[in-house]
Amino acid sequence: MLNPLVALFVVGGSNFSMKSEDKKELPRGGGSYILLIKLSKGGEILIGKMGSRYFSEGSYLYLGSAMKGLKSRIDRHLRDNKRLHWHIDYLLVNASVEGVITIENGNKLECELARGFKKVLKEVTGFGASDCKCTSHLYFAKKGDDLKAKIKEELGGPKYRYLLKDIRENSY
After folding, report:
1. In a domain? residue 167
2. Residue 98 lies in a domain
3. How many domains does the chain contain in total?
4. Could you give the strand order of the β-sheet that contains 6-10, starting from the edge strand earlier in sequence?
5. CA 39, CA 97: separation in Å to the nearest integer?
6. Total-model pTM
């Protein structure tokens, strides 16, 4: 049984696809989430009205919230066929979701999390933060292991006191 506050799904491979039994476990309530993303090849990517930006090959962490339901938002991010709306939609056309962390508590924590991750990861300025005062909701690490270590550090510490399941060493 998954912890109701934090559920972690991490699988290897370039085409992350949650099994149907895992999708049933996704929380239906509101809260925040983290997408673990891998970009296999760096290059220019058109990000809607933001324009074209260069993205380096490597691992990315995206912070979001879904107050009307985490399950439906995450399902949308994992779909291939969707209308491109948010910055993350444009990036995901070129990248793969390697994992999802959900925090179902009815609170919008993406900005609080952004303040923490900004201190320990390189931010992609202006990405995903057009509706708040944050400078970014997307963070970069060249290696997946570096990203996983920072996630464990930030979410596993006393500040949040969440039970974060171990991120498997072979997930990237």
Report:
1. no
2. yes
3. 1
4. 6-10, 96-104, 31-39, 58-66, 138-141, 122-123
5. 9
6. 0.80
